[in-house]
Amino acid sequence: MIWCVEDDESIRDIVLYALNSAGFETKGFEDGLSCWEELKKEKPDLIVLDVMLPGMDGIELLTKIKESVEYNNIPVILATAKGQEYDRIHGLDLGADDYIVKPFSIMEMVSRVKAVLRRSQPQQISKLLKVDGLVVNLDEHTVFVDGNRIQLTYKEFELLRMFLSHPGMVYTREQLFSQVWNLDYMGDSRTLDSHIRTLRKKLGDYGKMIVTVRSVGYRWEVYHDE
After folding, report:
1. Where are the domains of the chain?
2. Alpha-carbon gap, residue 215 to 101, rounded angstroms
3. Which residues pair with 77 in a beta bridge?
4. Cβ-based neighbours of 58, under 8 Å, separated by 6 or more
5. Domain 128-220 classified CATH 1.10.10.10?
6. Residue 220 class from Cβ within 10 Å (0-12 exposed, 13-18 middle, 19+ buried)?
């Protein structure tokens, strides 16, 4: 939802129409006070805010938004007239995310809205590791094989996470001991081999992708189409 706070009805209508055409939901306000009151009911994704407004002007509204713990993460693009350099600088100092000078190109305005949204919305970090029908959810600590959930021990899960995080990479026995067991060396212990064997069995056909590298360790095989 994009809000436009602009007292000139013709400009406001053009901005809302352009944003709607670009696929955004929109809402318009003719003054700062009505926008501030509406903020108490819902929060937009971004506000295009004119500086020169009746009553509560754009700078005052921007100040209230950025000083509020509840609203200060809402991106704001200031719309200023030529010659209002002080307002632009002051607005940026107060926390405005961008500005656009009137009269502005509608295409430029839409582009700036999209750019600010990209910057303000944190990138989604993938918490899923997938190989065909094998899905590992790192947040939920769950593993699904072809839609069926399988139960792994903590050590088995950590081994699988390491393999899928770097497919094709050979992990030495020492690396696996260090990162999964927090041990530098386990001598002649067959603990690692036993865990790998059990993990392969639980993964079914996907278990074949855990390949033994003789005299070194293990890796997750990467198959390439011919």
Report:
1. 2-120, 128-220
2. 67
3. 48, 98
4. 5, 32, 49, 50, 51, 52, 78, 79, 87, 91
5. yes
6. buried
What's the fold here for domain 2-120?
A: Rossmann fold (3.40.50)
Please answer whether residues 117 and 25 qualify as being in contact, where contact means their C-beta atoms are separated by less than 8 angstroms.
no
pLDDT tens for the chain, 226 residues: list them: 999 999 999 999 999 999 999 889 999 999 999 999 999 899 999 999 999 999 899 999 999 998 888 888 899 999 988 767 777 788 888 889 899 988 888 899 999 999 999 887 755 445 788 898 999 998 888 999 998 999 999 899 999 999 998 889 999 988 888 888 876 555 556 888 999 999 999 999 999 999 999 889 999 997 644 4
Alpha-carbon torsion, ordered 165, 169, 171, 175, to 10 deg: -60
